[in-house]
């Protein structure tokens, strides 16, 4: 979905459900009161609640590494959440750090705009946009992948830490092939580890990262091939991907002076920040412990987190089912006569 379509979807949802929403409200503190209810402190006054559903997602604080402090002030630095278009960056070459969805898509955007891009590649996997006549997401939905729960996933809870596959919906959707970009002039490196003595230091893992991303790409396509064969689906044949470029001698150091780099876009994700929630529901790393959004503390629930229960839990596609599950638990806990909702956005 495009930006305007997402906005329209949300507006239509509000019009249909008509919930008591308060917009532009920051929740600053939630804590248990002596009577067992919750005190909810916000920028629009304080509330009391019997139950609290945290629906703020899991991407709160942009990650900027400490090495950023050592870079010269002449280099413009922004996080991916601040990026809008190539024109906002100064003239010169751009270093994009990270190759997840944001990093790969921003690198593509700059590359297509004619900018010289340096990309520090991480271990993010990739997937095809279309394969054998259909969007890969459609194939995976038919195959039941998006119905797989955390408990049934081979990685169990570890799947929540996975980086999303890089691909794009730009111009109707297409693959992102970093090897092809390299053939066209993009400069690829391994993970950026530090800035010291005037030089950027990269890990020697570029080939391994590219190979791993392609292995995932072809693995997903192979699973689709198997599904097509087992279910006698009529679909056009499509060849598996073969690399169009291989990295040469690894570059592990790059002197910043003389490199032409005038800007850095940090695309290494976000950390959760639930410090405002005073509840014993966290795992020691800032992430909530829960079972499909239900925590060990009565009255505290989560919704909309990546892989809360399935892949779609953090997306429009399946968040509704998780919401229904949590709402039923709340209704059972409170009793139907006390079941009411308030929304702070």
TrEMBL record:
Keyword Nuclease on entry: no
| Protein origin, superkingdom | Bacteria
Where are the bilayer-spanning segments? none
Please name the SUPFAM superfamilies in this protein's record.
FAD/NAD(P)-binding domain
Instruction: Provide the alphabetized UniProt keywords.
Output: Oxidoreductase
Could you tell me one molecular function GO term of this UniProt entry?
flavin adenine dinucleotide binding
Tell me which Gene3D superfamilies the record gives: FAD/NAD(P)-binding domain
Q: What is this protein called?
A: Flavoprotein involved in K+ transport
Species whose genome carries this gene: Methylobacterium brachiatum
């Amino acid at each position: 979905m495009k930006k305007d379509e997402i906005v329209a979807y949300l507006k239509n949802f509000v019009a249909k459900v008509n919930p008591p929403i308060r917009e532009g409200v920051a929740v600053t503190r939630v804590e248990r009161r002596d009577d067992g209810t919750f005190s909810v402190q916000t920028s629009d006054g304080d509330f009391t609640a019997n139950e609290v559903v945290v629906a703020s997602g899991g991407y709160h604080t942009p990650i900027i590494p400490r090495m950023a402090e050592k870079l010269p002030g002449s280099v413009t630095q922004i996080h991916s959440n601040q990026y809008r278009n190539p024109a906002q960056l100064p003239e010169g070459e751009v270093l994009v750090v990270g190759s997840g969805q944001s990093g790969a898509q921003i690198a593509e955007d700059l590359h297509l705009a004619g900018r010289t891009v340096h990309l520090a590649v991480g271990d993010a996997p990739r997937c095809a946009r279309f394969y054998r006549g259909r969007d890969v997401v459609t194939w995976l939905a038919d195959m039941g992948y998006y119905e797989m729960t955390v408990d049934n996933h081979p990685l169990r809870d570890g799947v929540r830490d996975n980086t999303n596959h890089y691909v794009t919906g730009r111009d109707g959707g297409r693959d992102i092939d970093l090897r092809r970009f390299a053939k066209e002039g993009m400069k690829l490196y391994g993970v950026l580890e530090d800035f010291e003595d005037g030089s950027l230091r990269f890990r020697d893992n570029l080939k391994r990262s590219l190979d791993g991303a392609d292995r995932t790409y072809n693995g997903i396509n192979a699973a689709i091939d198997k599904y097509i064969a087992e279910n006698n689906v009529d679909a056009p044949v499509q060849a598996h991907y073969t690399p169009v470029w291989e990295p040469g001698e690894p570059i592990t150091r790059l002197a910043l002076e003389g490199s032409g780099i005038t800007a850095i876009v940090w695309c290494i994700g976000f950390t959760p920040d639930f410090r405002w929630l005073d509840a014993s529901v966290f795992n020691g790393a800032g992430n909530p412990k829960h079972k499909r959004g239900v925590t060990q503390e009565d009255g505290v629930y989560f919704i909309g987190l990546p892989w809360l229960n399935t892949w779609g839990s953090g997306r429009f596609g399946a968040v509704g089912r998780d919401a229904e599950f949590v709402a039923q638990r709340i209704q059972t806990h409170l009793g139907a006569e006390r079941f009411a909702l308030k929304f702070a956005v």
